[in-house]
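Predict structure. Chain length: 429.
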Amino acid sequence: MSKILVTGGGLAGCLLAIYLARRGHEVHVLERRSDPQKDASSYTDQAYFRGLGVTMTARGIKAVLDAGIPKKELELCGESINGMSFFVGGKSKIRKLEPIDNLSPLSLDRYAFQKLLNKYATINGVNFHFEHKCIDVNLEQKSLTTLDKNGDFNYISGDLIIGTDGARSKVRQAMQNAIRKFEFQQTFFKHGYKNLVLPDATSLNLRKDLLHFFGMDSKGLFCGRAATIPDGSISFCICLPYEGAVSLKMQNTLDISQFFSRYLPPMPKDIHNEMIKQFIEKPSNDLINVSSSTYHYKQNALLLGDSAHATAPFLGQGMNMALEDAQIFSELLEINRDDFQKSLSEFTQLRKVEADAMQDMARANYEVLSCSDPIFLMRAKYANYMHKKFPEKYPPDMAEKLYFTSTSYSQLYSLQKKQNVWYKIGRIH
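Prediction complete.
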């Protein structure tokens, strides 16, 4: 049994801790926020004011179920998704998604899912250190220094450090200083976003079993997404340029009203006004892409999830890949009999290729969602029909592969390039 330190107790960190504890390791999770089972404030604030709505696909679902979490309990954390709605030219066009292996995507209540993971981590004996902010990482000594809520410094060491502490990871910063020729790139997407939340989705007549997309007719100006969660609320993610007449800096109520009327479905006046109020009051947020040349340091430390490959969420796969990371690392430990040196090296080799492919697809998908040909759905249906009729010649439907299978991202990227006349409408290479 080894003592493993996990920095960051979010979704990926908690699932990883469950996998490691089930393998018999002593796992310590250090989390700067409070215990979600006792205090919701630091989690709901993120979900309602900063966080994007998240969709769990078959890839993420399988990773969670393989960690011993019952499917029925997972399904209580989300709303089952059966299709997509694209609002174009004042009308909604619906594309159905047919489930495979009885697995449908879930539009998640992030906080409910976090509590579920924490529950099963505790059941499996994971040790949590809440309200401990990591301020220093010593890779050679495999130790962490944290600052707790009382202002006291704490020192903890182990046999392996795993960074699941997000896009601005302290573990990754330590690796940058320790590894010669460590290549790291952090880029900000050309647009930022605001997240607007309404408590009652039914007042908008938006089906709860659909993911709703907006802006495909905006010629690249705007991309929007809305999804409901089990408590009945609906979250709108509005992606816009940082500057300009139509941008995140809009403060004039008439300008914002005209923008909403042009690109969003009709809504009651009071809800329309509430959306305007939230747009003015809420801060804008950045979309960060993180790329690292390696995910491990010797046999001492590993990066996983956003710490290794944070991604703008235009493909809806950032969380899903992070959850899959945890599953893959556990599988490598099983194959290599908990040999850290071999497992960490193989993790980098396997997941670096997948992360690069996923990030490239996410960037490309934004162009589809914000600047697409009007006959997008017709071509998508045609591509799907032709694949079923001539499977050897026509690539399969990308949405089905993304939402209902665990096909590797590198394979999907190869398929994308073959069929981008359908997948990236109007952008033929």
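Summary: The first helix runs from residue 11 to 22.
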